Amino acid sequence: METTIDEDEKLRFLNDHIPYKISRLISIFLLQEKCSDCNMPIGYKELVSRVCQEDGFTSGRLLLHFLGLNANSNGDLILYRTKSSDDIFVNDLGGIKFNQNEITVIPDNDKAIIITFLKRANKGAAHMTKEGKGEINGFKVLPDAIKIILRFLKTRLYDPIGKSFILDFKGLNIDMNLIING
């Protein structure tokens, strides 16, 4: 079931909400580059890095759900089915939401990365837990997971609606293809 939204609201999502989530997703890349040259004490750099990592997990999780993907407790990539009447999915904006058949053709390596990423994101966003192997691995796959999420957004939202995949948000103007391919 699609949520009915008017054209003005679609534009707000495409021009503000989605770019904001993407900027949070890629903040780890943006701020690590900026912080490497600054005179910030090491403790602050570590804090910035951890905040960016957590932001990457929470924004990435939200964007994967927006695309229709989730992981279950058995470690399987599944469809994200929870939807209240005000939830927005990629198909509500003219994009293509994942279906079950499409999940089966996602390359195994990409699936493993996304599952590990979601396991860490789901634990971290839900409640305080003991650190486990999944959390450590989650941090290791974060850069690759971000690239996969960006690729999914490009192919399932930006390409289908004919919009270039340039992050144009509050003075940022970044070609997302450079991150996907770099």
In short:
This protein has 182 residues and is mostly helical. The protein contains 7 helices and 4 strands, in the order H-H-H-E-E-H-H-H-E-E-H. A two-stranded antiparallel sheet has the order 1-2. The protein has a two-stranded antiparallel sheet with strand order 3-4.
Q: How would you classify the helix and strand content by structural class?
A: mainly alpha
The strands making up the biggest β-sheet line up spatially as 1-2
Count the strands? 4
N- and C-termini, Cα separation: 36 Å
Helical content stands at 55-70%
Tally of helical segments: 7
Structure description:
By secondary structure, the protein is mainly alpha-helical. Helices cover 62% and strands 8% of the residues. The protein has helices at 7-25, 27-35, 42-67, 100-104, 108-126, 133-161, 176-181; strands at residues 69-71, 77-79, 166-169, 172-175. The strands form two sheets. The chain has a two-stranded antiparallel sheet with strand order 1-2. The chain has a two-stranded antiparallel ribbon with strand order 3-4. The radius of gyration is 16 Å and the shape is globular. The relative contact order is 0.15.
What order do the helices and strands come in, and which of them pair?
Layout: H1 7-25, H2 27-35, H3 42-67, E1 69-71, E2 77-79, H4 100-104, H5 108-126, H6 133-161, E3 166-169, E4 172-175, H7 176-181
Antiparallel strand pairs: 1-2, 3-4
Helix pairs in contact: 1-3, 2-3, 3-5, 3-6, 5-6
Features:
two-stranded antiparallel ribbon; single chain; 62% helix
